[in-house]
Fold this sequence. Notes:
This protein has two helices and 14 strands. By secondary structure, it is mainly beta. The chain folds into two domains: 2-161, no CATH class; 182-244, no CATH class. Strands 1, 2, 3, 4, 5, 6 and 7 form a seven-stranded mixed beta sheet that branches. The chain is flat and about 65 Å long.
Amino acid sequence: MKRIGPLGATGLLALLSFLIPLAPESTTAVRQVDVTARGDLLGGKRFGTVGSYEKIIARVHFALDPANAHNRVIVDLDRAPRNKGRVELWADVVVLRPKERGRGNGALLVDVPNRGGPLSWRGTIANESEIDTWYLHQGYTLASIGWQFDVRDAPDRLRLAAPVAHGIAGRVRSDFVVIERSNEHTVAHVIQDSIGGAGYPVSAHAPLRRRIRARKDLRGHLYGVGSRRGGYRTGRGARFYGLLQA
């Protein structure tokens, strides 16, 4: 892994400057860029007159000042733990750019991926069918950055690691659909049991005042489920356990 400090990362930080718009009076939000992998895209395949592309996989570390007026739009930032007065977080970034800069068109296309999956390509780009090569033939630089904290840790997913805000409590509602008989199910957002599922942590100190209701179909009447039917496991993304049947 190649670590790039805030002063020695001029080229890459210029490319990633779109991540956090900074006002002149604010302190730099990007503190460090760790490049974890870098190499030729698809074995150095050439894309018309643009030539070959390189793929850069990195992790960008941020440090935000809760007292800065430009950061006050971030909900509950003032409740997050701090290191030397700053709230720290990181995000995964993948960049595809022409190896010969002068052959590119000078435009940057940014993906803010839904649930960690980039829009311009799929997976780890193991073959040409996993990317829209039109962009590459036109000389675009492509970049994707993770922004969701609840994306599962997987090689083809882009994540954001955000700290947990403290001093917040209240009732949370979560709906889920059981498609087959099961003894346990996450109450965090999940799709096809492969995306999501890492929700907010449940407080281990407050008494768990749960209310479980069910219905037989989408428009059906909600009816209560007795507390003896199940319970919760706490942790990062609570899970309901008990007899669940489609």
